[in-house]
Amino acid sequence: MAISTSLKGLRAVVTGSNSGIGLGVARELARAGAQVVLNSFTDTPEDHALAEEIASTHGVSARYIKADMSRPDECRALIEQAGGCDILVNNAGIQHVARIEEFPPEKWDAVIAINLSSAFHTTAAALPGMRAKGWGRIINVASAHGLTASPFKSAYVAAKHGIVGLTKTTALEVAGEGITANAICPGYVLTPIVENQIPDQMKTHGMDRETVIREVMLARQPSKEFATVEQVGGTAVFLCTAPADQITGTTISLDGGWTAL
């Protein structure tokens, strides 16, 4: 018997979703029938147009809500303005690279606030509604850097390890209540930001596109292939379906073997 992957009637909030992984996840959730709420810290016609495009393409309700994920009050207000949610995808994130002794304190604070603390605040706001319904899915977009480390990324690695820990604690607190919490840990994903980095890397290393991808950008990814936003989104959809009911408190890696090394 076929197992349904329909998410019709469920509301999903995806933070940091006006581009890249977040937008890809939102599109895949909408494709499966979920109502989606997009989010970022901007509030432009293009942001709202993305929601309109998703609604039109997939025949679902979709809207955009501005909220700055560095601000605890706005994180919690996002869930309230969305009318609660059945599916919460904590995806918002930023990056800064520097040696620890040269890492600007304000950059550390920003990375921790957006990449880690925001997920705590949105989860805290979403859980009462999920508990009242007896069903919910919390999906935290972590990283291969939530399971391993790289130099010069102290704040990002600390935040992503923290997200994995938060995921486990959340899962234990809601066990037996019809709510699951899991972390997706992608390696390098082909997003517009990454795509735009390729020409500069080609110039810097004097390599063609395929070589710079394989030998430089994906040096730590054994498959030598990028993950895609659709693959991350499809994994999120799977975690919302019945076969995943007993998957909770764990990490799912989409890293081409990176963390197997």
Tally of separate domains:
2
CATH hierarchy: architecture of the largest domain? 3-Layer(aba) Sandwich
Main beta sheet strand tally, sense and closure: 7 strands, parallel
The Rg value, from CA coordinates, equals 18 Å
Strand content: 5-15%
Assembly type of the chains comes to single chain
Number of strands: 7
Structural class: alpha/beta
Give a verbal description of the structure.
The protein is of the alpha/beta class and 261 residues long. The chain folds into 2 domains: 11-188 and 227-254, 3-Layer(aba) Sandwich (Rossmann fold); 190-226, no CATH class. It has 8 helices and 7 strands; from the N terminus they run βαβαβαβαβαβαααβ. It has helices spanning 20-31, 45-58, 72-82, 105-133, 154-174, 192-205, 209-217, 229-239; strands at 11-14, 35-40, 62-66, 87-90, 136-141, 179-186, 251-254. α5 (154-174) links the parallel β5 and β6 (179-186). α1 (20-31) packs across α8 and α4 packs parallel to α5. The mean pLDDT is 97.
Summarize the structure.
The chain is an alpha/beta fold and 261 residues long. Helix content is 46%, strand content 14%.
Task: Tell me the layout of helices and strands.
Elements: E1 11-14, H1 20-31, E2 35-40, H2 45-58, E3 62-66, H3 72-82, E4 87-90, H4 105-133, E5 136-141, H5 154-174, E6 179-186, H6 192-205, H7 209-217, H8 229-239, E7 251-254
Parallel strand pairs: 1-2, 1-4, 2-3, 4-5, 5-6, 6-7
Helix pairs in contact: 1-2, 1-8, 3-4, 4-5, 6-7
